[in-house]
Amino acid sequence: MLQTLYISNFVLIEQLQLDLQSGFSAFIGETGAGKSILMDAINLVCGERGSSDVVRLGSNKAIIEATFDMNEKVKELLEEAGIDADDFITLTREISSEGKSICRINHRVVNLGLLKDVGSHLVSVHSQFDTVSMKLNGSYIQLLDKFINQPELLETYRNTYKEYTDVVREKREFLENALSESELEILQYNADEILNAAIGENELDEIEEKMKLLQASEMIERVGNEVMELVDGNDSITDRIYSAIRLLRSVKDVNSFDELAEKLDTYYYEIKDVVEDLNTIVSSVSTESESYEELQERAFLIRKIFRKNGGSYESMMKNLDNINHQIEQYSNVQEYEAKLIQKETKLINELNKLAKELHDVREEGSLLLEKAILNELADLQLKNASFKIEVNENDVLSKDGIDEVIFNVSMNKGETLRPLLKCASGGELSRFMLGLKIVYKDIDDVDTIIFDEIDSGISGATAYTIGQKMLELSKNRQVFSVTHLAQVAASGDNVYFIDKQTIDNATYSNVTLLDENSKYEKLALIATGTISNTTISTAKEMVKTARGE
Question: Which of 277, 337, 507, 514 is the most exposed place for a label (fewest CB within 10 A)?
Fold first, then answer.
């Protein structure tokens, strides 16, 4: 649910901090007071597009910040985006007077798309004029699927459909990119060149090291022999150390001399190791069988092949694998194409079977959904309404199966059933959406639902019913309703009053949570236009009736 809402310099609101309540909250006020501004701010912080027009005159920027309880779907989205997910989530939107927009989730800058995706799983906003056209048009099949609640069947179908579209794309690209005989010959030449060269993984490094040794071979031999003579020749360091060790050990029972003899002994053998390593290097240079020219020629060949194949041994081997795959793939075009067609046919058969299963459960579920919605429409003073869901099979497979789902409605007795958008008035559409929300109250994952003046053109008993339905819906969800009808607001657990003031030629909108006495006064005011003992008494009766108390 929406816990807190902070608004700064947004249209007529200079600064506002609201701690919002659970249950059903009604927002009332005089016409033009700015009731819908509050809902516009929530829309904006949840990712709707905005412009510099929303920035309060004379201000640099508008800021809206909303804190919600976390839900599982939003947590998944945040984790995918690498954003820390806690028990609460804070959305922030800033719009400058130049039109620049900054979006933040948990104080981290994000793009508008992610903000909107997250917002759509936190708040659902409905108004009289966009309810059906924005939320329902073209998505009846998704509404029906949500109601029948067969996620495993849908997931299996969609995974199979993706596999099918991947095969179709692969076949198309394969045929578009099929190689000619001359192109295959070039590929085979490149593969043979790499294979015939038989290049070792570290061969080039080893050759370059050998070439360095050969270039310096004369100096290596001269310096190496001189060092060995100095270290291990006649009257050398090793001879002197050996003599020193013998002298130290000739003195018996002197521990310090024994320790020094041990140290010198260690040095003696370390120097012997150095001499042996030097001898190996000098010997390898003097006995090298390959000429410098041979090594140079081999290094040239390896570098040339590397340059043609990505610059390194690893890229060369990767390119060889790719070449071999293309040769195998395109050497027999007809055989490979036949394999793809066989796979495509198998997937089509699987899809048709799964699509038929989906069609059957949709037809069965549509009857249950029809009944549930008709029950709600009757409660909403649309007792003469008829409602029928068409689940029509098509010949073309899509990501949703083979079905086209149409909602047909007749709002009055004797009228022909027609598609929903073509036969209902604004008020009727609004009541239809409210009824739909009641049906889906245990299915929808959105915790906060906003109805923005959906009760226009309604009065009397119907208005009471709408308020009572919103109250019913609020048992499972947080519900906000911007309303001009006292009968609707009377059902609210909480009533907020929005008014407008002019101070020093500037206009301000304010929002106040009404206490018990103020609530009756304001309900009396919007119901009758006056506040008196009689109208306040009428407002109290209105609340009792609306809330069934």
Answer: 277
